[in-house]
Design a protein that fits this description.
2 copies of one chain form a homodimer. Helix content of chain A is 75%, strand content 0%. With 215 residues, the first copy, chain A, is an all-alpha fold. The longest helix of chain A is centred in the middle third of the chain and has 29 residues. Chains A and B meet through helix 7, helix 8, helix 9 and helix 10 of A and helix 7, helix 8, helix 9 and helix 10 of B.
């Protein structure tokens, strides 16, 4: 594979992501992408059979991004800073790949391969990772206090709020663009889900953390 | 307006709702609806200019359904049964009008009139109604205990879980159809949001309520 080929391939992915995020994936065609990059449609089709293949490659980058950053440290116990980092990672991923979350059901319905991989990702990887993290935080004992039976519904609620936050903001305020402030509001919502489980001793630390995301 | 005209008009709305719910709004055309009803496309167009107008009329029915059932009783204090009824109403509405919630952002983007009305509905009506209900439940003192500052984020989380529950289930388990059991799982998720705020004295009543929605 020549150097030029790799470069064009990566540029197509990078600029497509930018266009999808700014204008929505549905309104962008392969012709738009080629024109934006100043390459011929033929050149684009040399690298990707169709738009779905570009979307799918972007999804794989999203998955790698999450997997690399949500790992559990093996050489030490988890700390509250880890929780903060996980939240930041989740919303950073949402922000950087936000076009995926404007209409995830529709996007998946149009990309069978992505639907299957997404399904695999959230069920056998992400769900266990998230529940595992919670158990760790509860084991710390200092920070969160919840019954074992509560872990799954709480994890599910957090997952749901993160996943649909942008779609929620978009339908609630259709004229306002999605901004990084939207991500901050999303973090606040997730923190509000955790707040009732925060141990009294840790409440000052928690309030300090929440203040980082205040208006 | 003749009796036949009213009848056909209502039948179009009713059967369209059924088809949208079962097969998704995007895959159903006005021709499908006419064929399903055994009427000519011309007859359908006599009543509705296009599919968006049918979708919009269905949205108005949804709005009326919510507005009629989420009213605050004027002649008595609210009770825990009222909370249960509100939850049932929310998910019954979600179930009966479920096609609207598979891809709400996309649906609204294709229907400017509906987007504007939906926006008006959730901001100036529904949001106040929900927050008002919470304040009532907290005033009861017996049931929920939360700070004034927590009411808004909690209301928002409940709203988000209700609104995106079906989309969440659809993307998480794409091969499983949305059923009434999905609604029950949705109620369980909402109850899990409320659980940490339930007063100790009321926990037995709450557990009894939750058991009604158990597996």
């Amino acid at each position: 594979m020549s150097k030029t080929r790799i470069k064009t391939y990566d540029r197509i992915i990078l600029e497509s992501l930018k266009l999808f995020n700014e204008q929505g994936e549905r309104s962008i065609t392969t012709n738009h992408i080629a024109a934006h990059l100043g390459i011929s449609p033929g050149n684009l089709y040399y690298h990707f059979r169709n738009k779905e293949e570009i979307v799918y490659q972007i999804f794989l980058q999203y998955r790698d991004f999450i997997n690399e950053r949500l790992t559990v440290p093996l050489d030490r116990r988890m700390t509250v800073d880890d929780l903060v980092n996980y939240l930041d990672t989740a919303f950073l991923a949402m922000w950087q790949f936000r076009f995926m979350f404007y209409d995830l059901p529709g996007l998946l319905a149009r990309n069978p391969q992505m639907q299957s991989d997404y399904h695999q990702f959230v069920h056998s990887e992400l769900k266990d990772i998230l529940a595992g993290h919670f158990r760790e935080f509860i084991k710390l004992g200092l920070f969160l206090k919840m019954d074992e039976a509560d872990i799954e519904p709480i994890t599910l609620n957090i997952w749901l709020v993160v996943k649909f936050w942008f779609a929620f903001e978009q339908t609630a305020w259709p004229d306002a663009p999605i901004t990084e402030e939207s991500s901050r509001r999303g973090v606040r919502q997730v923190l509000s889900l955790l707040k009732p489980y925060v141990q009294d001793d840790f409440m000052p630390v928690f309030e300090q953390l929440a203040a980082r995301y205040a208006d």
